[in-house]
Amino acid sequence: MTQTTMPPRIAVDKIGDGEPALLFLPGWCDFRSLFRDLLPLTGRHRTSVSLDWRGHGGSDRALVDFGAIELADDAQRVIEDLGLARVIPIGQAHAGWIALELRRRLGPERVPGVVFLDWMVLGPPPGFLDALVGLQNLAASEGVRAALMEMWTRGIDSPAVHAHVARMSTHGFDMWARAGREIAAGFAANGSPVAALEALACPALHVYAQPTDDEFLSAQKAYAAAHPSFHVQRLDASSHFPVLEVPGEIATAIEAFAGEVEAID
């Protein structure tokens, strides 16, 4: 682990060499340890970097409130501190909004594409925005968080997934409320991730495991048919954290996508 030099110091793991580099972004209330098994696989082909957000994991504790803009600042500072000229941001779940912000800030020359891991790319499902409101309500938050943890582990056999979710649950009300506020703001500002992609004319890959129903996959394939720069792959995994279950399958998909965006250039 290394850290950026200017406060707040951001904890970083870096493996491999070659560009475009891969920058792995954990979701809110998550940790760079999510990518522990994936980083050595992608690092065989190109520079692969993961980070902890401010207030998370090995990074400095946040002394004041912060939001998605500050997380994008953290990610951009990592890119500049490491001297990365071209980067593909890879966002777990709602860190996809940060990946898109990096494309917006740095442009297609430096961010030729983005990857989303297990995200609601077509827009929030029924009830989701209400849950985000609940996370911000002191009386309701604990129940909403418990429901999330139960949903993420129900029927999942992987000990790694259970351990990871248990660690996420150690974040308290303030961080989960912040997550709810910022995730909701992302949808309010953009409508959906695919709408944001269109506005940025940004190539993207979505690899996911949940939901497992064919309707979600079919809807994404229909979107991809109309928007050839969007790619989707359903993984042979069962949880919201497929990177813990099938890192090899994800590494292969990411490398194929990175090769495609390199060829476009």
TrEMBL record:
Q: InterPro entries from the entry?
A: AB_hydrolase_1 (IPR000073), AB_hydrolase_fold (IPR029058), AB_hydrolase_sf (IPR050266)
Per the record, GO CC terms?
A: membrane
Q: Which residues form the AB hydrolase-1 domain?
A: 22-252
GO MF, any single term:
hydrolase activity
Which Pfam family, any one, appears in the UniProt record? Abhydrolase_6
Tell me if Hydrolase is a UniProt keyword of this record: yes
- Kinase listed as a keyword: no
Q: What's in the keyword line of the UniProt record? A: Hydrolase
What protein name does the entry list?
Alpha/beta fold hydrolase
Species: Nocardia aurantiaca
